[in-house]
Automatic annotation (TrEMBL):
Record InterPro entries: LIC_13387-like
Domain of life according to the entry: Bacteria
Sorted UniProt keywords: Membrane, Transmembrane, Transmembrane helix
Protein name, per record: Uncharacterized protein
Organism: Nannocystis pusilla
Transmembrane segments: 22-41, 53-71, 77-94
NCBIfam families: LIC_13387_fam (NF047765)
């Protein structure tokens, strides 16, 4: 991968540079999405609204984790695992419906 060089938009990059760049970008995007979900949880008026956001985050994170496990290197796998665990813990900590 280090020796396979090609041009993207006139810039020469190795395959390793591209894979590492995508890996770092996905990790940063995941952190940003986590911050956005925290902001949604603070603005939500009820536990039911928060539950919906946390459930959506958990499902999306698990799907991305499955894709990352098959196709990507270690950094996105680690960040999606942490995100999935965080969403699961957040859902478990919310009061149950009708309680």
């Amino acid at each position: 991968m280090r020796e396979s060089v090609f041009a993207i938009g006139g810039i020469r990059r190795t395959s390793l540079d591209v894979v590492n760049g995508i890996s770092v970008a996905m990790g940063l995007a995941l952190v940003l999405v986590g911050v956005l979900f925290l902001m949604v949880a603070r603005v939500a008026g009820s536990a039911e609204q928060t539950r919906g956001a946390a459930a959506l985050g958990l499902v999306a994170s698990l799907v991305f984790l499955a894709v990352a496990a098959v196709l990507l290197p270690l950094p996105p796998i680690v960040t999606f695992t942490v995100a999935s665990a965080s969403f699961a813990i957040a859902l478990a900590g919310l009061p149950r419906r009708g309680s």
